[in-house]
Amino acid sequence: MQYTFQEYIPSAILRNHLKLGGSNPAGERIDITSLYLERGGKPWLPVMGEFHFSRYNCDDWYKELCKMKAGGVTTVASYLFWIHHEEIEGQIDFSGDRDVRHFVLAAQRAGLDVVLRIGPWAHGECRNGGFPDWLQHKPYPLRQNSPEYLAQVRHWYTAIYEQVCDLFYKDDGPIVGVQIENELPNDANHLLTLTLMAREIGYDVPLITVTGWNNRFGARIPLEEVFPVFGAYCDAPWDSHIQKRPPSSHYVFNPNRNTDDIGNDLILPVDEDGWSLPYHRYPFATCELGAGLQVTHHRRPVVSGMDAYAMSLTKLGSGNNLVGYYMYHGGTNPIGKLSTFQESKATGYPNDLPIRSYDFHTALGEYGQPRDQYGLLNMLHMFLAEWGADLAPMEYVASPQAVQPSDTRSLRYCMRTNGESGFVFINHYQRLLPLEDVLDVVIKTPQVTFPAMDIKGDVSFFLPFNMNLAGNRLIWATAQPLCRVDDTYYFAAIPGIEPQYKWAQQPENIRIITLSWEDARRARKLAGKLYFGNVYEMDGQILNMDEDYQLTDVTITPLSQPPFDPPYGEELAFNGPRALNWYQLHVDSATGMIAIPGPYDVGQIYADGQLVADQFYHGEDWLVPARLLWGKTAYLVTSEIKNDFYREF
Fold first, then answer.
1. What DSSP letter does each residue of 581-623 carry, written as one string?
2. Measured distance between the N- and C-terminal CA atoms of the chain, rounded to whole angstroms
3. Cα angle 105-109-114, degrees, rounded to a multiple of 5
4. CA 583 to CA 500: how far, in whole Å?
5. Fewest C-beta atoms under 10 Å: which of 74, 200, 248, 614?
6. Does residue 351 contact residue 237 with C-beta atoms inside 8 Å?
7. CB of 29 closer than 8 Å to CB of 40
8. CB 100 within 8 A of CB 53
9. What separation in angstroms does the CA of 409 have from each of 4, 246, 398, 429?
10. Within 10 Å of residue 116's Cβ, how many Cβ atoms?
11. Same fold, 2-390 and 550-647
12. 84 — phi, psi (to 5°)?
């Protein structure tokens, strides 16, 4: 069967219409058009990954940032949680794991750009959304233009600025952007006030972003001073119910950037005065593509590699021109002097979360361990590193008929094109819903016709047409382009589809190597060479991260009596009292990971009386570094599991 496209009508590209952009001392500029970002006068399609420095050991920041770069991330984003830095009013702390300057310098050393999400309200599953308790108790409204609140925000913004004042892009530093506030959908005036305040203090950056969701018609934003970024998650752990959700809309191609499932308890059903965000003024940009998900006590989804990869590919095909993941790297919540820092119902939020674990089941986990997402997403990132400047000006063109997420029979496809060349995107994957095979698929663009293909199983891919490879025109290929190394171009063979290449003229100055899908997901381009495996470059050395995460033995000895009253027993009794089981843990080495099997409801590990790790059971073994227990008296306590939460297996 032949599959065609709607007519491609080029958009008018707006320039110099926003009060954004800037240059560095070398004269390179970052600018923003209505369709894409530009850097050095060329289209620029960055890959941004979230990593919260205050949720990780500062001694390992540089190493973890190098691992992010090896996975194809070009920009690291990080919230600054006010409560992490000023838990006690007047006592600002930027030391140790809170040292934002050290983090930014580590990112620069790793070769990454930086976007700081400076709040003041952040959320990020943090206590009070990141507000200190003392601020919560002030007798004036927060997140509004009340003078007293704005004075506190100025104090917070100034404190951050003083740490990084010479590390902005204009100073030849890595900070290319900041995000103002978070998930504030209906107060453009307040967002403008915060933006102008940040500028006045000295946040002179090319890019200032705000989140664009939580309003059906798009968040109300100051139209010229910021640009909106969006997100997508494959499930919603914040949903109040414990049933399976309907098939996610994020696995069908659609240029709509807004979403109805991030904080869906806050979305307005209608906009009373007809506000509609003028999307045509801004590039399609994301800051929260869910490379994973954080579990809540009542909902515990597990994100697979294909869950994340297929969603990111679908958004890329739909026009995404800033690929931003939340989270890309997990972490561990610190514990404060006065309280724990996690979101909980006790602080007025709708969810109970682990006290320590912010693993997010994402590409790089709580302890930096790589998951399937890491390699799969890197297949997209390697392509963008090589051809992102070509893809960015290409526009989304839909299939003649829209496909619904529950439709298991229809082919899900689209293309991005400039009218002459482009890429056809096909997604044959829907999370938790098997799709039927689609046979004898013939893709016909206005320029070329691909050979017949059978689309079977869980596959998600894109195919080039009229692609320029060192002056050679590749009319079409039934393999996915990956990267270039010198005169060799690497493609990935798509499972179930024969890799074929049709040339305008047989090339003589280049080579084509087709990797198997498994080899492609293991490929890493580092220092101009192609390596295979979970390797990364740090200080000129190629290192294997898998060596840090081998399983090691642990002795788990049941105890008949609890050794002490657990200091954080409230976490073990969500939804009422539960029976507890205690165990003593012993390891013979500080290296590797130990595995703790389920089932249980909540697990906590104490080492020398300190809570070092916790977990809500979600169906997989709990992996914990042996170094947390090595040389210490360690105990595990688990609470009784009940049928009071959503789980997938």
1. EEEEEEES-SSSEEEE----SEEEEEETTEEEEEEE--SS-EE
2. 37
3. 55
4. 57
5. 200
6. yes
7. yes
8. yes
9. 17, 17, 18, 11
10. 26
11. no
12. -70, -30
pLDDT averages per 10-residue partition of the chain, 649 residues: 98 98 98 98 98 98 98 99 98 98 99 98 98 98 98 98 98 98 97 98 98 92 98 96 96 89 50 84 98 98 98 98 98 98 95 98 98 98 98 98 97 98 98 98 98 98 98 98 98 98 96 98 98 98 97 98 97 96 98 98 98 97 98 98 93
Q: Which residue has the tokens 């059971």?
A: 617
In 3D space, the residue among 474, 463, 373 whose CA is nearest the CA of residue 427 turns out to be 463
Tokens 């004036």, located at residue: 140
**Angle at 37 (CA atoms; ends 34, 40), nearest 5 degrees:** 130
Domains of the chain, by residue range, sit at 2-390, 392-534, 550-647
Cis before 327? omega within 30: yes
* Of the candidates 25, 26, 139, 124, the residue with the CA atom closest to the CA atom of residue 77: 124
Please give the order of strands across the beta sheet that includes 634-639.
554-559, 580-587, 634-639, 602-607, 610-616
Residues 456 and 449 sit within 8 Å (Cβ to Cβ):
no
293 to 260, 325, 365, 387: CA distances (angstroms): 16, 11, 11, 29
Distance CA 612, CA 498 (A): 50
Assess if CATH 3.30.420.40 describes domain 2-390. no
* Fold designation for 550-647: Jelly Rolls (2.60.120)
- Are 341 and 127 spatial neighbours (Cβ–Cβ below 8 Å)? yes
Residue 120, preceding bond cis, omega within 30 degrees? yes
Length, in residues, of the chain: 649
Q: What are the structure tokens assigned to 20, written together?
A: 């954004």
Which amino acid belongs to residue 264?
A: N
Task: Give CA–CA dist 167/173, Å, rounded.
Answer: 4
How far, in Å, CA of 470 to CA of 510, rounded? 8
Residue at 407: amino acid letter: D
Residue 313: half-sphere exposure toward Cβ, Cα within 13 Å:
32
Q: Rounded to the nearest 5 degrees, what angle is found at the Cα of 341, between the Cα atoms of 212 and 574? A: 100
